[in-house]
């Protein structure tokens, strides 16, 4: 694989989907000025052409980084997801090319939790319906089917960063919190883990989904699951659009089984704000439909911009992979006058021994070595005297199992 170490001015960052300007500012402060910015996701062919010359790409949830896109991205070193979800990235395709993928696992959790609480209150009070009616000139003053949030049971599916934060806020408003998760979790406050999804559904007034997009969560809420929920319950989904069977939800709303729903994410979402939003849920006044804005607050986006840009710049400068989602995590110090070789390889027996043989047979003095592995990949970082880096890099690149090498001057 080709030797890679470039002047900062030649390192190109492609930032898509209106990533916050704080990202550009953070990159600029780290000396990276070569930034191409787009306010929207690019259609596949345009994406392939723009990414071909990029060393780093920044996306949110709309850009699909598929095998085909990675194939076109010959110079790509790392991907920054300026969000939590990484389901829009083919992680296996990135990993097999030694492309690191970073995200911002915490910066928008509070924003999502606040939106869910607001929606739960509005739906319990019937505000979505009353608001829609008022816009049509209808006055519906009534206390019927209008409830306080206090004392109601909140069922959280997926008790991770967002689910836990939601549980804490809900409890402070007097809700009784229970959750279902595939992993045993330490409950915060008085929250209670329940052993099965059906149990959670059967005993919750409000159900809120906070699971990732995986095979197991695909349509995890369909007709059968909705049937477990009490009449008049409320369903909220601000996780991923594939988690709820939208047609089944529409049917249950049509039958009047559920009192309402708040949906922020959809199986198919418009590529940009110029495209029409199509959904069977549009006909229901008692649904709050939002355009995937759970994490879209000024505070969250600004923080995410700084956080992910900093991770990309640090990886470019030092090779540090802390918080990469597909690479072994290594925190690396500055390398001073030494040259730093980065070697990403398949995690198979014999690679490290081959690497160390190169240094001993060629009498190359190594000043520092860092190694970390995960199931698929090994990542070894070697600091050495500048005079040896050409030779060492050439030999490292020839080691069986090598995925990618890079040198930092
Ligand atoms: N709407 C938005 O704008 C928005 C913003 C941020 C995050 N999200 C999405 O919200 C979701 C949750 O984010 P998070 O940061 O809390 O994630 P997280 O990884 O911290 O938590 C996910 C939890 O779900 C659990 N889980 C996984 N599979 C499960 C299954 N089959 N059944 C039950 N539990 C399961 C995990 O054990 C974990 O506790 C993600 O899909 C993320 O992409 C959406
Ligand atoms: O900002 C986005 O487009 C995605 C937000 C959210 O779904 C996330 O995964 O953090």
UniProtKB/TrEMBL annotation:
Residues 14-326 form the D-isomer specific 2-hydroxyacid dehydrogenase catalytic domain. Its EC number is 1.1.1.399, 1.1.1.95. It catalyses: (R)-2-hydroxyglutarate + NAD(+) = 2-oxoglutarate + NADH + H(+); (2R)-3-phosphoglycerate + NAD(+) = 3-phosphooxypyruvate + NADH + H(+). Residues 120-294 form the D-isomer specific 2-hydroxyacid dehydrogenase NAD-binding domain. It comes from the Bacteria. Pathway: Amino-acid biosynthesis; L-serine biosynthesis; L-serine from 3-phospho-D-glycerate: step 1/3. One of its GO terms (molecular function) is (S)-2-hydroxyglutarate dehydrogenase activity. GO terms for biological process: L-serine biosynthetic process. Residues 341-404 form the Acetolactate synthase small subunit-like ACT domain. Keywords: Amino-acid biosynthesis, NAD, Oxidoreductase, Serine biosynthesis. Gene3D superfamilies: 3.30.70.260, NAD(P)-binding Rossmann-like Domain. Belongs to the D-isomer specific 2-hydroxyacid dehydrogenase family. Catalyzes the reversible oxidation of 3-phospho-D-glycerate to 3-phosphonooxypyruvate, the first step of the phosphorylated L-serine biosynthesis pathway. Also catalyzes the reversible oxidation of 2-hydroxyglutarate to 2-oxoglutarate. This is D-3-phosphoglycerate dehydrogenase. It comes from Sediminihaliea albiluteola.
